[in-house]
Amino acid sequence: MRGDAMRGLAVFISDIRNCKSREAELRRINKELTNIRQRFRADKTLDGYQKKKYVCKLLFIFLLGHDIDFGYMEAVNLLSSNKYTEKQIGYLFISVIMNSSTEMKQLIIQNIRNDLQSRNPIFINLALQCVANIGDREMAIAFTNDIPRLLISGDTLDAVKQSAALCLLRLHRTSSDSLQLNTEWTARIIHLLNDQHLGVATAAVSLIDALVKRNPDEYRGCVNLAVSRLSRIVTSSYTDFQDYTYYFVPAPWLCVKLLRLLQNYPPPEDPSVRSRLNECLDTILNKAQEPLKSKKVQHSNARNAVLFEAINLIIHMDCESSLLVRACNQLGQFLQNRETNLRYLALESMCLLAASEFSHEAVKKHQETVINALKSERDVSVRQRAVDLLYAMCDRSNAQDLVQEMLAYLETADYTIREEMVLKIAILSEKYAVDYSWYLDVMLKLIRIAGDFVSEEVWYRVIQVVVNRTDVQSYAAKIAFEALQAPACHENMVKVGGYILGEYGNLIALDPRSTPMIQFNLLHSKYHLCSPATRCLILSTYMKFMNLFPEIKHHIQEILRHDSNYRSSDVEIQQRATEYLRLSEICNPTVLATILEIMPPYPEKQSPLLVRLKQKKPLMEANGATESQPAASGNTDDGPKLTETAIHLNQQAQHQNGLLVSLDTPESNGHHEESTSHHSSSAKKFLFKNSDIIFENELIQVGIKGESTKSTLRIELYYGNKTNSHLTHFSADIFTPGDLQTALRMNFDPIKSTIDPKAQIKQTGTIDCIKDFAELPTMNISFLHNNMLQKIDYAFPLYLNKFIEKAEMDSNNFFLRWRNLDKPNQECQKIFPAKFPMVYNDCNQKLEDFGWSSLVGIDVNAENFCGAGIINTSTQPIGCLYRLEPNKQAKMYRLTIRSSKEGVANRLMELLEDQF
């Protein structure tokens, strides 16, 4: 068949496949391109078949990875053909190789509009498919009226309505701001949920679900219609929807989409609608109990898909106790199912049910099953969910049993989940500790079992609890001393034991088994096995011993005088040894007792363990976090608490209008001699913002605002006093070490030397960029708080992108400059995994906030990001181009940056590669 076979295309493809080398393939392709170009130029009488054949060859060559710079007009001419195959090839070529020329786009848009207005449904669908494939801003603007009109028109065929709905969904996802839907069409779009054709209704639900997320109030009327449609499907038999029944399950995809749509709104206020929805959910749960009508896995998959989405809606509503309990019981049956995926999903959903006061007790009934799953499950992801569920179902009644079970499993747990388990065990043991001696036993056992996975926050918290509770300090000293006697003692145990003995070793000193000298010798036997940071802490403990036990003072002084300390290669150890030795020699016992007095209680704030756990699992709150346990579990009125109120106040404070907000995230100090410092450069603060909090601890908060003009950055620094006393002798200086002295010129106004309680002061200044730079300046802050000198050193977050100015250009200029920047040191390219969800608008916003322009539509792949910027320095402007290519299937990015100055692309890459 001449119209379909295209023998010339088949021969060309065969020739390419038969090429023995890359060079032979290039020669064959260049020969074919020359022939096609000559035919297009010389022969003006080419018929539709020949144009189609040559356009297909160009498309094939493009898909092989070669650039195509001609043939666009011939492809556009094919759009005007009345033959389906020719029009199809034209649309295929345009969809794959979209030219950015304005004139060409106008021709394409006009041809698409002609097909959308035709009476041929096949041509209309081809046009809609092309618009959806391209899906850029210009398409959304051009057809913002035509496609919705097709969707709501009464004489439009069902197949066209279905395509129109999906096309609108695509435009909404890629260019929602450009797609302006008339509010008069809202009711008619919602009414599509009642369409007799289930394909139209399914496509409409997907569209409405996306529109609801942008404007929920406008589409609130969809709730009643969604419940009505869901009821008709759920209560029907599979014979009523023969064309849309999948393995005896009526319209499972539509049911799932309707259930997800209803999760965008609270439970219906209308009693009749609410009752009907509850009946639907009840029916779905009942059908899940019925015997399977088919042994094929597709039947159970379809039924379970509807069931799990119904359970998600029940959890979302969180108001019908009977439904919540029934959902929990149904999930409990899945815990022993042979299918790993079902066990995983059941555990995940039960984590959410555990957070509800109606179903918490029902979840606890499956405690033994979950514990068995934790011990015997072969899949690590299922074991992870089992740990999450045990954490979520824990309350006062079962806390000790669950903590012991988790401790027992921790010894053989996978390394990937040990750190998270340590955090959860620490949180549960503290929250539900009726007797804090039990809490200390658990924590020391935890450190012994999983010492390598115990983060600083965990052992910091142990020390805070001991310091804050006088009733357990003696017991803490006793068990810490016993723990240090183990032959193999983890370094974290040495830290905890050393700190506690230094503060409260005197409480057990009368016992002949733990005299001061025995304590000292035991601790010093671990000294040489520890890292320099731990040795510093132990030296501080020795100073505490000198105050608590004057009789061993000369032994400690000998240790401090030893060359391994007094002349240590580690600066911190040497400094401490020197200062402590001199302090012990010149101070009388009264002064020494004042300097080395016992630590005061720590102020109670949100637990740093919860902060750490949320950083590891951002969805923890939604998965039944500890702080959202039902009120029935109760809390004691004494001791450290991990309260929801603290979390709420913390989140509320972050949304205040002022720059300096009260974050109150504790910078827990494991030992009191450490300087109050906090390095935040790893978080790359101020990278995408014009204002940010760049440093904070329990005493002071530092905020920044910046506005750049060419090579000058105007800075406002805000220093806030978080205490109830004055901060005196306040000074703040920014230093530019090394090459930064020639790269940056800073000029800041003087500031006040005193900050009043709960007040802030402002400092203004300018920073001029003389040339590009890679390092960060250092900010030094010093002040007196309660007559004690506080010094803070941290990296000042001044990045090169603060001097980037957006650059706009068309496709020709962009790719011309791109090709010119081809020297090895002018380009940097990296492929890295996605750290965050691959959302188009989020990525685009980050790139623009970084300082670059976003050049929409210049790349042949609409999912890619391209843009440009100019780094303004006093010596020379530096042009920069970027191309970010997401691969959603592999969850990877490829980022390519080119700059006019060698080395700059590498510096920009270092800033961006871990931000997507």
From TrEMBL:
One of its GO terms (molecular function) is clathrin adaptor activity. Belongs to the adaptor complexes large subunit family. Residues 621-642, 662-683 are annotated as: Disordered. Gene3D superfamilies: 2.60.40.1230, Leucine-rich Repeat Variant, TATA-Binding Protein. Adaptins are components of the adaptor complexes which link clathrin to receptors in coated vesicles. Clathrin-associated protein complexes are believed to interact with the cytoplasmic tails of membrane proteins, leading to their selection and concentration. A 1,2-diacyl-sn-glycero-3-phospho-(1D-myo-inositol-3,4,5-trisphosphate) binds at residues 7-8, 49, 53-57. Residues 625-636 have a biased composition (Polar residues). The keyword Transport applies. Pfam families: Adaptin_N, Alpha_adaptin_C, Alpha_adaptinC2. The lineage of its organism: Eukaryota, Metazoa, Spiralia, Gnathifera, Rotifera. Keywords: Coated pit, Endocytosis, Membrane, Protein transport, Transport. It is found in: Membrane, Coated pit. It is a peripheral membrane protein. One of its GO terms (cellular component) is AP-2 adaptor complex. One of its GO terms (biological process) is clathrin-dependent endocytosis. SUPFAM superfamilies: ARM repeat, Clathrin adaptor appendage domain, Subdomain of clathrin and coatomer appendage domain. InterPro entries: Adaptor_Complx_Large_Subunit (IPR050840), AP2_complex_asu (IPR017104), ARM-like (IPR011989), ARM-type_fold (IPR016024), Clathrin/coatomer_adapt-like_N (IPR002553), Clathrin_a-adaptin_app_sub_C (IPR003164), Clathrin_a/b/g-adaptin_app_Ig (IPR008152), Clathrin_app_Ig-like_sf (IPR013041). It comes from Adineta ricciae (Rotifer). Its main location: membrane. PANTHER family: ADAPTIN, ALPHA/GAMMA/EPSILON (PTHR22780). This is AP-2 complex subunit alpha. Residues 684-797 form the Clathrin adaptor alpha/beta/gamma-adaptin appendage Ig-like subdomain domain. SMART domains: Alpha_adaptinC2 (SM00809).
